[in-house]
C-alpha cells in the first residue's frame, strides 16, 4: 500500500475529523481529532499497519497531542498520526486493544503527561512511584524543589497526597502492593522483597 | 478512572491471597541477581509454575526526556550514552540521525563508514555481554569470562578511537569528531581474526551443550502475532520467525552497500532468540570486515552551524540497535532546545511482552526468558 | 546401672518427649521436625537392641522418605505452614480413653513378656538373617506388601497424571 | 533390659579401627577409668575428624576457586598468604566467624538455629565409616554402606528446616526443590550401590575394599568394581552430585533463580556451617565412590608389601585413598564450571525416568551374572 493511497482513504473516510494530511518521504502525516482517534487507528490497523512503533504524548500548552508512529512489516509506508485533545481534560480512547504494545506506552503517557486513555486495561503509573504527585513532562510542572522520600510501595504517602490534593479516592480497589508479599502467612509479608 | 489509575495493582487480579492454597506470590527483584538491574517481577506461583507475572519498572527513572527538553541539541549527546549503556554508540547514532533528519544534513561518506564500523563492533560487544550474562542465568558460569575477554578487546578498540570505554559520546550532528587513529585498522583486523576463532569455542561451551539446549528449547514461546502486536523488535522479533531488520528492510546510512544475512528463528522460543544473537555476531563481523575494506578517505564532518537550531518540525527516526528498534522522536520549535524529546527504547517494548512469554513457565524459565529478552534497565526506565 | 541402660532411658525419654511435641506443637512444620527427631531416637533404640539394619532402614525410610514427603506437602500448601493449628478438638475425651486402654494393654503385654520371642544367641550380622527370613519364612507377607505398594504407586500415578492436552 | 548382656553395635560391636582402639588403650594406660578413656578417645577422634573437615574444606574451597579461575582464563586468589593466595580460605573463614550473626525477625528462631547444626552433624556423622587407610577408620560398621545411605538422607532435613524457618519465599522454594530432589535421587543412588553389595556380599566397607585388592598381572587393578559396575558407578556419581547440590544439580540454591535458596537468610558462622557441610559432603560422596568402585586405599600399583606393618602402610593407603578421592572431587568441580543448571522438572525426569531404570537394569544384570557364574563355574 502506497502512502498516498493511505492518505486518500483516510481523508475520504473521516473527512473533517482528519485535518492537515500530507506525505513526505513515504510517511503520511495526519492530524486527527482526539475524540475520533480510535476510529482512525482502527481504520489504519485494518489497512495493514500492524506495527505500532511508538506512541508519545506532547504538551503543546494549549492542547495535548498523542502521536502514533505506525508502520507495517509488509510495505514501506509509514504513518505519523497526531491526535489532539484539550488541555484541561486530556482524554483519548486507548488503542491497547488494537496494538498490545500501546499498553505500556499509554501508561507512560499517563504517568508523565497525565493524558487519560479511556478503556485502557490497566492504567497505572509505570515509571514513577505510585504516590507521585503531578505529571513531570507537562510544561507547567514545577518540582517540589527538594528531595521527596517515597515509600517503596507508596501506601503511606499516597493517602496523604490524595488528601492534600483533594482527589476523591474511593478506598475500594486500592490495595497496597505490600500486601502482595503476604502469600505465606503473616510473618512472611515482605520477606522476599 | 483516577482511583483505578492510582491503584498499585492491576484490575482483576486479587493479590492478597491466591485462589488455592498452593498459590504464592514472589517478588523477583528489585534486588535479585538475575533481573539485570533493578527490575521487579511480581510472580504468581503455583508451586514452581508461573501463573501470572507483572513487571514493575521505573526504579532507575531519571527524567531523561525532561532533561533533554532543557538542554540544547549538542548537550543531549552524552546523556543518550546513559540510556543503553551496553550499546552507547547506537544511542548516539539514533539521536544524531534524528537531529540530522530534522536539519536535512547528510553526514559525509567516511563518517557513515565509521559509524557502521563502530556500530557493528558495538553490536558484537553488546551481544557478548548478553551471552555471558545469559550463561549466568542458566547456571553456566564459564562462558561469562570468555565473552568478557573478547568484549575487553572491543572496548580497547573503542578507547583507542574515542578515549572512552563505556559512554563514548562520540557521534556528532553531521558526522564524527575525530578520525580513527592509525593503529585502529590493524587492531580491528586482528580482533576480527581472533574473534572468529572464538565463536566455535562459545558453541562448545554453550550452543552444543545438551543441558543448555534442554533448558532453552521450547521455553518462553512468543508467537508471531504476539511479537508484532507487542511491537517487539530486534532478536526478539526475529526469534519469532519474522525476518525483519531495519538495516535490511528500511536501510539507513550506507547499509545497502554491505552483504549480510538476517538470521531468524522459527518457533519463537528462548533458543531461537539465542541463536539469532549468536549468528548476528558473525554477520556483524562480516559487515565490519567489508566496511574496513571499503572505507574511503575524506571529510568526516558535514557543514553544520555552531549552534544547532533545527527548523520547526517533528521527526521519528530509528536505527537497529542490538536490542531492536531504537527510535528517537524529536519535536523542534526552532529554538536551540528540543520542544519534545522522546526515546522509543527497544528493551522497554520487548519487556512488555514478557508476561505473554512467561505463561506456563517455571521459575527457572523466568530467568531464562527474561535473559533472552536482553534488557538494559537504563534504557527501559530512562 | 549399665551404660546400655543409661542410654536406653536417655533415648526413651528423648523419643517420648519429641513424640509428645509432635502431638502438642501448634506449628505443623515444627511437629514434623519433631517427628523426624523422634524417629531418630527410635532408631537409637533399635541399635540398642542390636537391630542395626532396622535402625538404618528406620532412618532411611521414615526420616529420609516419608517425613520429607510430608514436609514437602506442608511447604507446598503455604497457607498452613506458617499458621498455628488447633491441637485439641471435640474428640479429646474419646481419644484419651483410647490412649489409656492402649497403655494398659501394652503394659500388660510387656509384663507378661513375649514367650514366642525367646532370646536367641546374638548373631554377628543380622542383615543376611533378615534377608533370608524375608525370602523364606515370610516370603508371602513380603510379596503381599510389595503388591500393596505397587497398587498404591499405580494409584498415585493415575491421580497425579494430567489429562492429555 | 532382658538382653543387657548382648553387644551394642555402635559402642562395642563391629571392629573398631585399630588406630582408635590403640588410642583408647593408650588413654586407659595413662590411668583413666575404662568408660572415661573411651569417652576421651571418642572425643579425640571427633576432634580429629572435625579438624580434618575444616582443613580439607578450606583447601577444597581454595582449590575450587583456583580451578574455576583457570577454567575461566582468570587467576583466582593471588594475594592472601603469598604463593597463589593459599591463605585466602583462612582469611575468608576468619571473616565468616567474625561476622554479625543475623537472625531474621520473622524467623522461627529455634529451628533456624538448629538447621545448620543438623546439616553439619549429618555430614560429620558420615565420616564414621570412611576407611581412609588400613585400620584408619572410626568404626568399621557391618552395615557400613547402609549407614552412609541412611545418614546422608538426613541432610535434606536440615535444609528443609533452614528453608522453612527463614520465613523467606525464596528459601521455602529452595527447601521444596531440595526435598523433591532428595526423594528423586536417593532411590537411584541406593539401587546403584546395590550392585556392588551383591557382588561383594557384604555391607562392610573393609570387606568391599578387600574384595578389590587383587591385581591382574601384578599391577593392573582389574578387580576394581568400577569395571564391572561401570553403569552403577556412573549412576552413583550422578546421583551423588545431586546429593551434594552441586551443579548441574544445584537447583535448591540456584543463585540466579532463588538468590541462594535455602540459606539466603544465613550469615556468619551459621552460613559457614552450611558451606563447610557442602564441601564435607563432597568429600564423603567421593570417598564412598572410591571405596566402593575404585579400590579404596589400595593403590593401582603394587601394595608395597615391605611396608605392610605399622604406620607406613597406613600412610601409604591414606595417600592413595586421598589421591583418588580428590581426583573425583576435581571432576565434580570441573563439571560445575562447565555445565549449565538443569531445571526442576528435567531433574525429576532424569532421576525417575533415566537413572532409576538404568540402576534397576544394572541390578538385574548383576544378579543374572552372579547366578550364571555360579551355574557355569560353580561357586
Folded structure, characterized:
The complex is a heterotetramer of chains A (193), B (382), C (165) and D (379). Chain A has one domain: NADH:ubiquinone oxidoreductase Nqo5 subunit (Beta Polymerase, domain 2). Helices cover 23% and strands 24% of the residues of chain A. Chain A has four helices and seven strands, in the order H-E-E-H-E-E-E-E-H-E-H. In chain A, strands 1-2-5-4-3 form a five-stranded mixed sheet, covered by helices on one side. In chain A, 44% of the residues are buried. Chain B has 16 helices and six strands. In chain B, helix 5 packs antiparallel against helix 15. The radius of gyration of chain B is 21 Å and the shape is globular. By secondary structure, chain B is of the alpha+beta class. Chain B is 48% helix and 12% strand. In chain B, 57% of the residues are buried. Chain C has two domains: 87 residues, Four Helix Bundle (Hemerythrin (Met), subunit A), CATH 1.20.120; 42 residues. Chain C is 75% helix and 0% strand. Chain C contains seven helices and no strands. The model of chain C has no long low-confidence stretch (mean pLDDT 81). Chain D is globular, with a radius of gyration of 22 Å. In chain D, strands 1-2 form a two-stranded antiparallel ribbon. Chain D has 14 helices and two strands; from the N terminus they run βααααβαααααααααα. With 379 residues, chain D is mainly α. Classes of the chains: A alpha/beta (193), B alpha+beta (382), C mainly alpha (165), D mainly alpha (379).
Descriptive labels:
heterotetramer, A: 193 residues, alpha/beta, Beta Polymerase, domain 2, 5-stranded mixed sheet, two-stranded parallel sheet, 7 strands, 23% helix, disordered C terminus, B: 382 residues, alpha+beta, Cytochrome-c3 Hydrogenase, chain B, 2 domains, 3-stranded antiparallel sheet, 16 helices, globular, disordered N terminus
Can you lay out the helices and strands and say which pair or pack?
The complex is a heterotetramer of chains A (193), B (382), C (165) and D (379).
Chain B: H1 2-6, E1 23-28, E2 40-46, E3 49-56, H2 64-69, H3 76-81, H4 88-103, H5 109-138, H6 142-162, H7 184-207, H8 210-216, H9 224-229, H10 235-239, H11 246-249, H12 270-294, E4 313-321, E5 324-332, E6 338-344, H13 346-351, H14 354-358, H15 363-373, H16 377-381
Antiparallel strand pairs in B: 1-2, 2-3, 4-5, 5-6
Chain C: H1 3-24, H2 28-48, H3 52-76, H4 78-81, H5 92-112, H6 127-135, H7 139-160
Helix pairs in contact in C: 1-2, 2-3
Chain D: E1 15-16, H1 18-29, H2 34-71, H3 88-98, H4 109-126, E2 139-140, H5 144-152, H6 155-165, H7 169-200, H8 205-211, H9 225-228, H10 230-243, H11 255-258, H12 268-293, H13 311-336, H14 344-377
Amino acid at each position: 500500500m502506497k502512502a498516498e493511497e493511505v492518505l486518500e482513504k483516510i481523508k475520504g473516510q473521516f473527512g473533517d475529523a482528519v485535518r492537515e494530511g500530507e506525505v513526505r518521504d513515504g510517511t503520511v502525516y495526519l492530524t486527527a481529532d482526539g475524540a475520533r482517534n480510535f476510529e482512525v487507528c482502527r481504520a489504519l490497523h485494518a489497512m495493514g499497519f500492524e506495527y505500532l512503533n511508538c506512541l508519545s504524548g506532547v504538551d503543546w500548552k494549549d492542547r495535548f497531542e498523542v502521536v502514533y508512529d505506525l508502520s507495517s512489516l509488509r510495505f514501506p509506508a509509514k504513518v505519523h498520526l497526531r491526535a489532539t485533545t484539550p488541555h484541561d481534560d486530556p482524554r483519548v480512547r486507548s488503542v491497547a486493544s488494537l496494538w498490545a504494545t500501546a499498553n505500556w506506552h499509554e501508561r507512560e503517557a499517563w504517568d508523565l503527561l497525565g493524558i487519560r486513555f479511556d478503556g485502557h486495561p490497566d492504567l497505572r503509573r509505570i515509571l514513577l512511584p505510585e504516590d507521585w504527585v503531578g505529571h513531570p513532562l507537562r510544561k507547567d510542572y514545577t518540582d517540589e524543589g527538594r528531595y521527596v522520600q517515597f515509600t517503596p510501595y507508596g501506601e503511606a504517602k499516597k493517602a496523604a497526597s490524595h488528601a492534600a490534593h483533594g482527589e476523591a479516592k474511593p478506598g475500594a480497589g486500592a490495595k497496597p502492593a505490600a500486601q502482595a508479599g503476604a502469600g505465606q502467612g503473616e510473618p512472611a509479608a515482605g520477606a522476599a522483597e | 478512572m483516577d482511583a483505578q489509575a492510582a491503584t498499585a495493582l492491576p484490575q482483576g487480579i486479587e493479590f492478597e491471597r491466591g485462589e488455592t492454597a498452593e498459590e504464592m506470590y514472589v517478588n523477583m527483584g528489585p534486588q535479585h541477581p538475575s533481573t539485570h538491574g533493578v527490575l521487579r517481577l511480581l510472580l504468581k506461583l503455583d508451586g514452581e509454575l508461573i501463573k501470572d507475572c507483572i513487571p514493575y519498572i521505573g526504579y532507575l527513572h531519571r527524567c531523561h526526556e525532561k532533561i533533554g527538553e532543557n538542554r540544547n541539541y549538542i548537550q543531549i549527546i552524552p546523556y543518550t550514552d546513559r540510556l543503553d549503556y551496553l550499546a552507547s554508540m547506537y544511542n548516539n547514532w539514533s539521536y544524531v540521525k534524528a537531529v540530522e533528519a530534522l536539519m536535512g544534513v547528510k553526514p559525509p561518506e567516511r563518517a557513515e563508514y565509521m559509524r557502521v564500523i563502530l556500530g557493528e563492533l558495538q553490536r558484537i560487544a553488546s551481544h557478548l555481554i548478553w551471552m555471558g550474562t545469559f550463561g549466568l542465568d542458566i547456571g553456566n558460569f564459564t562462558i561469562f569470562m570468555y565473552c568478557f575477554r573478547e568484549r575487553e578487546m572491543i572496548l580497547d578498540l573503542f578507547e583507542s578511537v574515542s578515549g572512552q570505554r563505556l559512554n563514548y559520546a562520540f557521534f556528532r550532528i553531521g558526522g564524527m569528531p575525530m578520525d580513527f587513529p592509525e593503529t585502529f585498522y590493524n587492531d580491528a583486523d586482528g580482533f576480527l581474526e581472533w574473534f572468529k576463532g572464538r565463536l566455535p569455542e562459545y558453541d562448545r561451551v554453550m550452543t552444543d551443550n545438551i543441558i543448555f539446549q534442554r533448558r532453552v528449547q521450547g521455553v518462553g514461546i512468543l508467537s508471531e502475532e504476539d511479537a508484532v502486536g507487542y511491537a517487539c523488535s530486534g532478536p526478539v522479533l526475529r526469534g519469532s520467525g519474522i525476518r525483519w531488520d531495519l538495516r535490511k528492510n528500511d536501510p539507513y546510512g550506507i547499509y545497502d552497500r554491505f552483504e549480510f544475512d538476517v538470521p531468524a528463528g522459527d518457533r519463537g522460543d528462548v533458543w531461537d532468540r539465542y541463536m539469532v544473537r549468536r549468528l548476528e555476531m558473525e554477520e556483524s563481523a562480516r559487515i565490519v570486515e567489508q566496511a574496513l575494506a571499503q572505507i574511503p578517505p575524506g571529510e568526516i564532518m558535514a557543514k553544520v552551524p555552531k549552534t544547532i537550531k533545527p527548523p520547526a518540525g517533528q521527526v521519528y527516526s530509528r536505527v537497529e540497535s542490538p536490542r531492536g528498534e531504537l527510535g528517537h522522536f524529536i519535536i523542534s520549535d526552532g529554538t536551540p532546545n528540543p520542544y519534545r524529546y522522546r526515546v522509543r527504547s527497544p528493551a522497554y517494548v520487548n519487556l512488555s511482552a514478557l508476561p505473554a512469554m512467561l505463561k506456563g513457565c517455571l521459575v527457572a524459565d523466568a530467568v531464562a526468558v527474561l535473559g533472552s529478552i536482553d534488557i538494559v534497565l537504563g534504557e527501559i526506565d530512562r | 546401672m549399665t551404660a546400655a541402660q543409661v542410654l536406653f532411658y536417655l533415648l526413651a525419654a528423648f523419643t517420648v518427649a519429641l513424640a509428645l511435641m509432635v502431638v502438642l506443637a501448634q506449628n505443623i512444620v515444627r511437629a514434623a521436625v519433631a517427628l523426624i527427631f523422634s524417629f531418630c531416637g527410635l532408631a537409637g533404640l533399635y541399635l540398642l537392641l542390636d537391630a542395626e539394619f532396622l535402625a538404618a532402614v528406620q532412618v532411611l525410610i521414615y526420616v529420609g522418605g516419608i517425613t520429607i514427603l510430608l514436609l514437602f506437602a506442608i511447604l507446598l500448601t503455604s497457607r498452613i505452614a506458617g499458621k498455628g493449628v488447633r491441637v485439641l478438638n471435640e474428640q479429646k475425651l474419646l481419644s484419651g480413653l483410647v490412649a489409656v486402654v492402649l497403655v494398659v494393654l501394652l503394659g500388660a503385654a510387656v509384663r507378661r513378656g513375649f514367650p514366642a520371642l525367646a532370646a536367641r544367641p546374638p548373631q554377628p550380622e543380622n542383615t543376611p538373617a533378615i534377608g533370608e527370613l524375608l525370602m523364606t519364612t515370610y516370603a508371602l507377607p513380603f510379596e503381599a506388601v510389595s503388591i500393596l505398594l505397587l497398587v498404591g504407586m499405580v494409584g498415585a500415578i493415575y491421580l497425579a497424571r494430567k489429562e492429555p492436552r | 533390659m532382658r538382653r543387657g548382656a548382648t553387644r551394642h553395635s555402635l559402642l562395642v560391636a563391629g571392629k573398631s579401627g585399630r588406630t582408635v582402639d590403640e588410642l583408647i588403650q593408650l588413654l586407659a594406660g595413662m590411668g583413666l577409668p575404662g568408660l572415661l578413656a573411651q569417652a576421651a578417645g571418642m572425643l579425640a577422634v571427633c576432634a580429629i575428624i572435625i579438624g580434618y573437615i575444616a582443613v580439607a574444606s578450606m583447601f577444597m574451597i581454595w582449590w575450587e576457586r583456583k580451578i574455576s579461575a583457570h577454567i575461566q582464563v582468570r587467576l583466582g586468589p593471588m594475594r592472601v598468604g603469598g604463593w597463589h593466595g593459599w591463605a585466602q580460605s583462612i582469611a575468608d573463614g576468619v571473616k565468616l566467624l567474625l561476622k554479625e550473626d543475623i537472625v531474621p525477625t520473622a524467623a522461627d528462631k529455634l529451628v533456624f538455629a538448629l538447621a545448620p547444626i543438623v546439616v553439619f552433624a549429618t555430614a560429620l556423622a558420615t565420616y564414621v565409616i570412611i576407611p581412609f587407610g588400613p585400620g584408619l577408620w572410626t568404626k568399621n560398621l557391618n552395615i557400613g554402606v547402609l549407614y552412609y545411605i541412611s545418614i546422608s538422607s538426613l541432610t535434606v532435613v536440615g535444609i528443609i528446616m533452614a528453608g522453612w524457618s527463614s520465613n523467606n519465599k525464596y528459601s521455602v522454594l529452595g527447601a521444596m526443590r531440595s526435598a523433591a530432589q532428595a526423594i528423586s535421587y536417593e532411590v537411584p543412588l541406593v539401587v546403584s550401590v546395590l550392585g556392588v553389595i551383591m557382588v561383594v556380599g557384604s555391607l562392610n566397607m573393609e570387606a568391599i575394599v578387600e574384595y578389590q585388592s587383587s591385581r591382574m598381572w601384578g599391577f593392573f587393578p582389574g578387580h576394581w568394581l568400577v569395571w564391572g559396575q561401570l553403569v552403577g558407578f556412573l549412576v552413583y556419581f550422578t546421583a551423588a552430585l545431586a546429593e551434594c547440590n552441586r551443579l548441574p544439580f544445584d537447583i535448591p540454591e540456584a543463585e540466579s533463580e532463588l538468590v541462594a535458596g535455602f540459606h539466603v537468610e544465613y550469615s556468619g558462622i551459621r552460613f559457614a556451617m552450611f558451606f563447610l557441610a557442602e564441601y564435607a559432603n563432597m568429600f564423603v560422596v567421593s570417598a564412598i565412590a572410591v571405596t566402593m568402585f575404585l579400590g579404596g586405599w589400595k593403590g593401582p600399583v603394587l601394595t608395597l608389601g615391605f611396608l605392610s606393618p605399622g604406620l607406613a602402610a597406613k600412610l601409604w593407603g591414606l595417600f592413595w585413598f586421598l589421591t583418588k578421592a580428590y581426583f573425583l572431587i576435581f571432576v565434580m568441580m570441573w563439571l560445575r564450571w562447565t555445565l549449565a543448571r538443569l531445571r526442576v522438572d528435567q531433574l525429576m525426569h532424569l532421576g525417575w525416568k533415566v537413572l532409576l531404570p538404568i540402576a534397576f537394569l544394572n541390578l538385574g544384570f548383576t544378579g543374572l551374572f552372579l547366578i550364571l557364574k555360579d551355574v557355569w563355574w560353580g561357586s
